[in-house]
Each structure stands twice: as C-alpha cells, then as structure tokens.
Amino acid sequence: MTGKQKILYFITLHRTGLWVTALSLLLLLFPLVEDNPYTLGITNLIAIYSIVVLGLNLFIGYAGQISLGHAAFFGLGAYGSAIATVNFSVNPWLAMVIVAVLVALVALLIGIPILRLSGHYLAMATLGMNFVFHTILLQWDEVTGGPSGFSGIPSLSIGEYEFWDEVSLHYLIWTFAMLALLFSLNLVRSGVGRGLAALAGDETAAAALGVNTRNAKVKVFVLSAIFASFAGSLFAHTYSFVSPDSFDIFAATDMVIMVVIGGMGSIWGSLFGAALITLLPEWMDLFETYKDFVHGGILVLVLMFLPQGLVTGLIDIGKTKLALRRQKDAEA
What we know:
By secondary structure, the protein is mainly alpha-helical. It has 16 helices and four strands.
C-alpha cells in the first residue's frame, strides 16, 4: 500500500472523527474572527436548538416515530432550572441535572401509554401534550409568572468565573452541543442505533429480528427528552428570562421542521436544519413577519421534492451524478 493509499484509508476510516475535529477547531476560532455579540448570540441559539434537534432526530429519524411536543420538554428544562435556582437557591449545574432526571421520569410516564400509538395518532397525542404544558405556563402565574414570563435566572459559573458574555457562552454552549453530537454519532453506529434504524425501516421486521420495539421507542423518547431538557436549562441560564411563547406549538413545529429539512436520520443534518431555521428570520425581514408561513412552505417543498431531507437529498443527488459521470468515463 502506497503512502497516498494509506492516507486515503486513514481518512476513510476516521472520517467522522476528522469532521468533528474540524468543526471543533472552527468553533474554537470563530470568536477570534467574529466578535460581534449579536452574531455570537445567534450562533449560541443555533447550538441550543441543535441539542434539541439531535435528540428529536433520534426519535423521528432513527426510531421512525413522530413528536410535535418536544417544545414541552424544552420548556420543562428551562422553567425547571429557573424555578429551582431562583425560588429554591439550587446551584444551577445541580439544577440542570435534577431537572433532566425529572424530565426523563415525566417522559417515561407519558411515553409508556402514548407510544402505543403511531402515525398521526401519536403526532396528535404529543401535540396535545405540548398544548397542555403551554396552557399551564400561561395560567399558573404564581409559579411560572404567566404570560409575563420568569426573570432573574442566574448565569452559569465555575467558581468565580461566570458565563455571562457572548464569547464565554459560545464556548460553553457549543461544548454541550458537540458532546451531544458525539454521543448521537456513537449511538447510531452502535448496536442500539442499528436496532433503531431497523425499527424505523419496518417495525414488524425489527421485532422479528429480536428488537424489543416498544422498549426501544420508550427509551429513545426519554433520551430525546433529556437532550431537550439540558438545552432548555442552557436557554434559561443564557438569557436569564423565559416566557411561554418560546415553548408553544409553533416552537414544537419548528423543531420538527429543523429535523425534516436537515434530513431524518442525518445527525449532521440536524445541525444544518437548526442553523437554517434559526437564521432565516435574520436574513430577511419578510421571514420574520411571516415566519410560520415560510417555515410551512419550506417544509412542504422539502417533503415534495426531497423527502429524505434537504442535506441528505442534496448529498444523494451529488452521489448519483458522480456515479453517472464515472460510469460515462468508464464507458468512454
């Protein structure tokens, strides 16, 4: 094997690790190139949504289920950390862990009965769950602050160092996002991930192959809720304020759109989907005014022409064209 072949073999073998390393270096250097607080604030928000979407993609793209209620778990993480730290003076880091455990228990209790459903019945059940949660946030003024929201949430800190400015928050939040990315990449390549992929392809066939489909669906549902909870806690401690509008059914729908656009079953596509939907309102005022209509239109177009997702679809088109070109070259 020549030196060039060895290099190509190494790149092929460690392709995922090299991509993660490259992205990590890019994120490490980004604040040195772009120190605008507003820009960093947008990228930090992308990181937070990426964590939610990574977990949701495991449930939708790999388990083959549908959830229109993950904004509820996102909100539980945010309000849980806010209430624990402000009302009970719990350390923010400890609050994040405690709240994530409680959210996991809530997801388990909800998931056991509703995951007996499938298709649009499951979608409606999770949508109803999100609607109930949003109504509680609006009506339970004494605890949640009602429509006015909940303020005064402390920032995260390590010792005397406090994560309050956009640069320090960039490194903190993207560290969590990269850990979520690494965990997701390793999970889908494991035996558990292959079982989930079989479940998404054909539930009956997966059961025949020995996959405990019901347990698998519940477990990945709980895992995706934990992702959303941590993201919600980061959201609360980053902005020091939360309101019900950030966790309504439109937010839940946007999360599903991020998954679909990035590509169902595409871990890397989750980052792209979160970035695109977060950035659209920033690029054009028209998108901000008619955000829900634009997002819905994009979702319809992607499902019509690239049902596997924008990123996955474009990659597949590129691979097909490359294969056809090689075939022509071989015939010539």
